[in-house]
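=== RUN LOG ===
request id: a7f3
mode: sequence -> structure
chains: 1
length: 387
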Amino acid sequence: MTESQADSHAEVREEVAKLCARFPGEYWRKLDEVRGYPTEFVQALTEAGYLAALIPEEYGGAGLGLSAAAAILEEVQRQGCNGAACHAQMYIMGTILRHGSAQQKAEYLPKIASGELRLQAFGVTEPTSGTDTTSLRTFAKKQGSTYIVNGQKIWTSRAEHSDLMLLLARTTPRDQVAKKTEGLSTFIVDMRTVLGKGLTIRPIRTMMNHNSCEVFFDNMEVPAENLVGEEGKGFRYILDGMNAERLLIASECIGDAKWFIEKAVNYAKERVLFGRPIGQNQGVQFPIARAYAQMRAAEAIVQKGLEKFERGERPGEEANMGKMLAAEASWAAGEACVQTFGGFGFAEEYDVERKFRETRLYQVAPISTNLILSYLGEHVLGMPRSY
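=== RESULT ===
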């Protein structure tokens, strides 16, 4: 990223950094111990308007572009905080913005912008289908003015801490559609009205504090007016938002990498062994320098993807490559940081081990590296479909 590009959001970054300073490592460590949700942090971001960055001004948001949202999330990670508690609100929003009805936008967007409602849960992945989204089994059957939903989702992060869920379900059986991507529909589920009345949420403990859940639908009722766009077109609506999701997650990984690199550099300069700073040793210095190079390369591709997105072009290649390379860069930076700190890298008080666990997720989710390589092989390089 050139200095001029970085400067376009310098003020936003500066203000986000100030906000994050109110939530130091100790805050996150205490939450990590009990797998708690950072309610105060999310509230502060909401009150400052950052989670409404992409909502148009007419609905109470800031009306900013995706690059501003990327700058916000990158800075959150760079300051040692964790945007995973709320980042979905940034990219789920696009489905409602692009495909929601005027009534849905008027009803939900102002309340999301003000913080009255949280849109944090994204119900797509299922235990049996994983990332093979067209094979999902959750079914929504139309009965009069209502859809009756039955099925199960897994890895539905923040379900316990969200008011609304964007849900993808089959409305036409897979064996009755011409293409497997047809017959899927998207719904806005007001979880406040159905929790315990057809909706069950169970948290899943993981190696990082990610507030993930499995959710069960047992004859859950969703009003027909909560269908987003046309019935059967939901897969396309979800796909529309995936490039934005990958660019934003990549930006978080870049922020993580910058945090690790700064931490490692400072420690390498201060830590003295055998009469000299350990950073003087190439075995310590070179892995940090290589991680920095990886981060800058990923940053350049993500920046290109953000520019294409904001021009209205489809940045599939840049979004996928950027997400993969940024996740690999943050992991390389984390690896170098742990190695630089040695035994202290595993001590909770330095926050390195926490961030190390958190950033590892992004080589697996929201899409695995292998599927990104499949996309590049088929859609960019023109080779036969591999699956």
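=== NOTES ===
The beta strands are 119-123, 139-143, 146-154, 164-170, 184-190, 199-204, 212-223, 227-228, 272-273, 276-277.
The chain has a mean pLDDT of 95.
=== END ===
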